[in-house]
Amino acid sequence: MTTVPRPQIAVVGSGPSGCYLAQAILRALPTAELTIFDRLVSPFGLVRYGVAADHQHTKAITRQFDRLFQGGGARFAGGIRIGDDVGLAALRDAFDAVILATGLPADRPLDVPGADLPGVVGAGAVTRALNAHPDAPTRLPALGGDVVLLGAGNVALDVLRFLVKDRSGYAESDVADEALAGYLAAPARRVVLVSRSAAAASKGDPQMLRELAALPRARYSVPDPAGPADPASPAGPADAGDRTAAARAAAVAALVDPDRGPFPGPEVELRFGAAPLRILGTERVTGVELDVAGERIVIPADAVISAIGFAGEPRDEVGRLIAETPPDPASGRLGAGLYRAGWAQRGPRGAIPENRASAKLVADELLADLASGALAVDGDRPGFAGLPPETRARAVDYEHWLVLDAHERSTAPADRVRRKLPDHDAMVGIARGDAAAPHPHP
Amino acid sequence: MNITILFGTESGNSELVAEDLGAELGAHHDDVEVRDLQSFDPSELSAERFYLVICSTHGEGDLPNTAIPFAEAFDAAPPELAGVRYAMFGLGDMFYEETYSQGSEHLDRRFAERGAVRVGEYGRHDASSWDLPSDAALAWLPGVLAAASVPA
Ligand SMILES: Cc1cc2nc3c(=O)[nH]c(=O)nc-3n(C[C@H](O)[C@H](O)[C@H](O)COP(=O)(O)OP(=O)(O)OC[C@H]3O[C@@H](n4cnc5c(N)ncnc54)[C@H](O)[C@@H]3O)c2cc1C
Ligand SMILES: Cc1cc2nc3c(=O)[nH]c(=O)nc-3n(C[C@H](O)[C@H](O)[C@H](O)COP(=O)(O)O)c2cc1C
Asked: Superkingdom, according to UniProt (chain B) (predicted)?
């Protein structure tokens, strides 16, 4: 094969999978010219807008991704929605290869009767508001005194931690204070977390449960038999999965330990082995009917937060394509020159590191297609320079983002590491250094 | 000195540290290589080279996924490591109080059991601190090199 001319590669989405993918491609193909598009002004996807505000150590992964843009290895083109501002066909014309790393932004709908009642809220809506996502309202919906939380994965545990904490739990965070204050003005008095699995087999990381146990907030109980059982496997050495299950059961046991002490905050019931049958109410939610070991139980609820996973959102051409193409963890290839990675490829499972492994797999597929000639690079594709001038002029670049980043840090109130602006246009204005940028209150 | 930097990573931090150490060392030493533990066989370990092992922690104080095949190959055919000298830098997060920085220790134990000798300080990076992992590793490096230059 002759030497490959600089391939022009577009990555759509600047979340962890887009960034890991760009890293992997640049390591293998340092001559590639990479443009990472995002519909938002800020890079990093759910690291910024999903990961809980009080978990800044997790958000620190962005410092690794900053490297991509700092060295000029990759161009950031924020504020451009592919499939709408720029059509997918136009993008494929301008670039040799396009990789869709657009994530799965919508809350998976709850498929029980009553799921449409007012008062039923998705966890994504809650976590976006707390992270000041520009698509989310700045206030949370009113949750009321009795909250039922469906799901027990890490996102559900993030929401539970939010429901039990008071203001002191957000030191050195970048929580959206307006959303937080709205909740703390009328916090939940009773929270019921509903998990289909038994405690040991539930989805959350043991560390997330330990963190709850260590917080001097809330009182926990486990009313059902599927609580912290002995998860020891019958025979053979414990593998990592068994150890995780054992750690999870031990963490739940520590939460309900009578010696944990009576702490202020809501009463929390952890109902393991319980399946929601329907949401009750006529005008709005009044309760949830559960099946617990064949028995029907009704729990009163002013609000139901569903944390049962995420799904595609067909709001543009790319979103439709991803929503309609079933997940395939084995391959990211949608066709020569068109690939997908991350949650858009594998489905809404896996924490940040898992996106690195899958990005490597997709990068290898792309490299194999280049080597085999299935993906031909002729050197004629213009890349970013081939997009319409208005689009290029509108794109927010990495330097712009750094201006916004510095603004967010410098305007943070005491005890906060940054103050995020919840408004897309205001973010664009500040990023571009527009004189009319609003100033924070003194 | 012939130096091999081995990294085990799951979210990529150790790889960056390894690359940065490689760039720094490459400026002063002729023979410096950076290798992913995922594609490194334990039988390649040799007394001819000095090893810098950079490895994070995942799960419940476990090795990162990319280092597990190396550990398994090591256990299946434990190499003879007399004369091998290495330095260890572990990445972890104090947030995980009970298992802080244990991932690299799984490798350290294996190396020591087979007769390899660790030189210099055991380096650590805590992700809950605000230091960049590479800064911490670059600060740790001179002490390790000084210790390694003293013949065994
Ligand atoms: C609430 C929540 C909390 C989480 N907390 C943690 C945690 O604490 N630790 C952890 O390890 N993992 C956590 N995760 C999981 C982690 O966030 C995911 O594994 C990861 O973000 C998936 O990466 P991605 O790049 O595929 O998608 P995303 O992070 O969603 O990135 C997709 C990007 O694509 C952009 N985009 C979408 N459509 C378009 C378009 N048409 N044009 C241009 N750009 C577009 C989006 O704006 C976004 O920036 C959490 C997930 C959620 C939902
Ligand atoms: C799911 C998960 C589990 C972790 N478990 C531990 C742990 O048990 N002990 C620890 O010290 N650090 C733990 N860490 C922190 C990592 O070791 C730390 O983030 C490190 O910088 C990652 O380096 P890497 O990118 O090279 O994998 C964990 C991180 C994640 C994401």
From this structure: Bacteria
Q: Choose the closest CB to B60 out of A20, A57, A243.
A: A243
Residues in chain B: 152
**B58 has which bridge partners?**
B62
The CA–CA distances, whole Å, from A42 to A45, A396, A404, A405, B87 equal 8, 9, 8, 8, 39
pLDDT digits (tens, 9 = 90+) for A256-290: 999 998 899 999 999 999 999 999 999 999 999 99
CB neighbour list of residue B150: distance below 8 Å, 6 or more residues apart: B119
C-alpha torsion angle, residues A327, A329, A331, A332 (rounded to 10): 60
Q: Facing residues of A194 across strands?
A: A150, A271
> Is B42 within 8 Å of B107 (Cβ atoms)?
no
CA dihedral A82, A84, A88, A92 (to 10 degrees): -60
Inter-chain touch A207–B65, beta carbons under 8 Å: no
The whole-angstrom separation of Cα A431 and Cα A425 is: 10
Indicate yes or no: pTM above 0.90.
Answer: yes
Q: Which ipTM score applies to this complex?
A: 0.94
* Per-residue pLDDT reduced to its tens digit, A233-259: 444 556 777 888 999 999 999 999 999
Burial of A434 (0-12, 13-18, 19+ CB in 10 A): exposed
Nearest ligand, CA of residue A57?
A: 2
In the block, tokens 């729990």 appear at A299
Closest CA to B138 of B10, B27, B11, B45: B27
